[in-house]
Amino acid sequence: MENLDLVSKHKNYQEKEYEKWRFRFEISLSLTWILPLLLLGAQFALVGNQIDYDVMKLSNWVGIEAAFALPIRLFVLMVTITTLLGLYARSLQFSEQLRLSKMQQNLAFEQLKIAQKQSDRLESQLSLYMKKESFLLYHEHIQRFKDKLDNLLTLSKKMFRYNSKVEGESLLILSERLYKHAFPENTHLEIQNANLKSSNVIFNKDNPIVSFDRLSQLDTSAKGVVLEEQLRIVTENFMFIGVHIKLHSNSGTDFDIALFAIDLQRALFLINMLGLMSDEHFDEVFSKSLPYFKPFFVESENDDSNLQTPQS
Q: What's the pTM value of the predicted model, to 2 decimals?
């Protein structure tokens, strides 16, 4: 705004100067004809009777310049003065045009800088908004993932009659860690997978979630801590992604291998439903793992049947 005021003031001054010298030029232009004519008229009035008007005499033509020297010289002088005044007025106008052009360019550059700053500020605000939106979407997706985990845990627990008798939850989930394995492509800056099923298949035939060699080495006569340690090794892949099958017994109770076997099936079901395990590998592990635990069961054949998943 201050620059515009300065430009306006300077423009008014330059315009006044130009108008002043332009007026002088116009006056001088008028006088260029008037003064020599007036002088010429005065000369005719004063000495006109002495002038020989006979055009047939050569001497009269030769003496014209000498006879009318004063009006002619005045005319030449006025032409020179008028020309100088005109050139000076024109130079003022041209100089002002150049100055205004340069000033307009500077103002245009200033406006461009302001527009660039506004654009950068808008881009920064947009980037901040997008980051905030991505952050909210990221945590909303995590919450939806946790809700799905809770639903799957409840569903898997209802699938087995034996497990439904147990109070509390024996399958412990580290949801944040499991989420990072299920959706490694998602961050608080960008959500690439907004679904609740992972596209990151970790476990398959080439990378089994359970080692059948280690299952085959289970000591059927082992008890307590020894058995729990063997089972901990068997389930280390589960723990790696944040799924922990409870290996210890509650205070005052014996370790329940049947409950552990059912929780293993529940964990497999959970991981498969999340997309971390291929369907073929799930079917293979689900069917092959059960026989390794049957020697441990002291329950009736009816209790053993609880390890089978109801057909969907």
A: 0.58
